[in-house]
Amino acid sequence: MSDTILTARHDGWVEITLNRPDRRNALNEEMHLALRAALEEAAGDETCRAILLTGNGKGFCAGQDLGDRDPRKMDGPPNLSETLNKFYNPLIRLIRAAPKPVVCAVNGVAAGAGANIALACDIVLAAESAKFIQAFAKIGLIPDAGGSWALTSLLGEARAKGLALTGEPLPAAKAADWGMIWKACPDEALMDEARALVTGFAKGPTVGYALTKELIHKASANTLDAHLDVEAEYQGRAGRTPDYAEGVIAFFDKRAPEFTGKK
Prior knowledge:
Largest sheet: 6 strands, mixed
CATH topology of the largest domain: 2-enoyl-CoA Hydratase, Chain A, domain 1
Structural class: alpha/beta
CATH superfamily of the largest domain: 2-enoyl-CoA Hydratase, Chain A, domain 1
Number of helices: 10
Radius of gyration: 19 Å
Number of strands: 10
CATH architecture of the largest domain: Alpha-Beta Complex
CATH class of the largest domain: Alpha Beta
Helix content: 40-55%
């Protein structure tokens, strides 16, 4: 098992930590494969009802490790389309499709694809000292790992272009004010708050969470009229879960519900 990724199992949730702190957790092939394996295992584990992704050291993730991409050491240009199709795109799709909440705690700088991996998660908390940097323009590239889509969807065209074309760092507090992330936290409180959030999700109505994720992902592509029909379908599915019955009974009993997360 690669030590580039650390996995810690808790009661109902899993914490996955990027672990190349000497390289600001920049991704190489070994780390790509280990991260995907850890996420696939957590996403497919029915006893895991929420996932927390974070980084070790001073940075969250510096994106792709350029150490093996030095043009002076290569016979020709790299095939970056292959890199995306082989590594990043499956990772982004996996995070988005996970049938449970995926929380990202951005503990430091998130640059390039590292920023966009964070933005693929369902809820992003960031340390106040953290910054998000679309560094691609600095080396003649375009925002990848879903970046051009996420920035435009979250911020609109003007801010997306501004961040992508200038590569200007976006501080965590401003990212929260702009609606790009959920919240900026004092550095010393970040992990406690993130772990408390995931612990709560691990005790929640997991099927309802998964359906909510799907609905929100579909919303931008649907008309209101079409989306109302999808909501009705999904609400029917949610209403047939044991967690719905438990939630209503707990409401009448004036007690906290004990959700199982089962279908």
